[in-house]
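Side project, low priority. Logging it here so it doesn't get lost.
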Amino acid sequence: MEAFYLLATILSNFLKSFTLSLLLLFRTLLPRHWFSRSSSNSSESVSLYEGTVWHERRRPVRHSFQYPVRYALYNLDHAPPDHLSADQARQIASTNGQVLLLTIPPSVGYVQNPLSVYYCYDVEAEAQASAPTQLLKKCIAEVTNTPWGERVTFVFNPNSDLVAKSLHVSPFMDMLGNWNMRANAPGDNLYVTISVQHPKLGDYFTAVLKAKRVPSSLVSDHAMFFWLMPHKVAVWIYWHDMLGNWNMRANAPGDNLYVTISVQHPKLGDYFTAVLKAKRVPSSLVSDHAMFFWLMPHKVAVWIYWHALKLWWKNVSYIQHPTYTNPAYREEASIRDHKIQCCPMIGSDKDKHLQFEGSDQGYFLDRSCEIRQFTWRKAKWPWY
């Protein structure tokens, strides 16, 4: 049933994107003064990045790939729809400065954002009275799975953080392990790195995003720049995989930015890593955001599905969504993450992997430890 629904969705989105692509091409070929360019009005609040995403799985089979991506970095005082507002992000991260959002904009009716990152800055008390100095304090990860359309948000330390896996993001990875995440402050370059630490497979997966800022003068149409980008990402994701607990790091967005996520699994160990690295694109090089992001969501979708198929071809075990096998998986992820915060060594010790059985869950809730809040919700259609 899920396969039939997925195929029907792919066909529906294909027809919609094809029609909108023709309209976009028609608009692009006509004289520019016939159409208003909204991107020019918002160029100051958006920076464009172009780079690559690289994934490597080391166990139980070796599999790696990379694909080109395009991202937009928004100042959340001009927030795009279906994302947290600046005030919401400040409240979640307990910060008082600017908030930037790294995400892939919709393209020709399609959205594909496996990971969006909010960069939350703090204004130092000493600097508030004089020249304000903003420092990247926290990041908020917004993870969306496909084709289930589920979304979870949580705070992580950009320098390096270990987070219990809280979302089923791949049918080839279970819910065990930790995500090791890192990200830099976006500038001319940015990166995001995620590695997976698994109790059996060890450090078996890595994903990296690297990107450079694109001068706005080089991009005349944002719609064309991001054309089919979400679709491409989706195809690559379905050809791919992720698992365990997430160890996350991110830098403060500037001319460069990065986000790193590694997965730590109780059985597989640190077996997966994902890294995003990007450089800022000068706004003078981009005159139309629609052309800049043309088909970017579509490309992401294509990469997701393509690499999922390749993993299936390599006989990697298919893992059903935990909703059908373990309805309490979200509660277990929260408890496991709380244990990681209280006893960091346990996150990387496969011999001390947590067991969640009945009343034993209450044993882990140590009030003296900081509790990370996970928020689950359905992603707005179309999310895959």
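Brief comment: Residues 35-41, 239-244, 346-367 have pLDDT under 50 and may be disordered.
Revisit when time allows.
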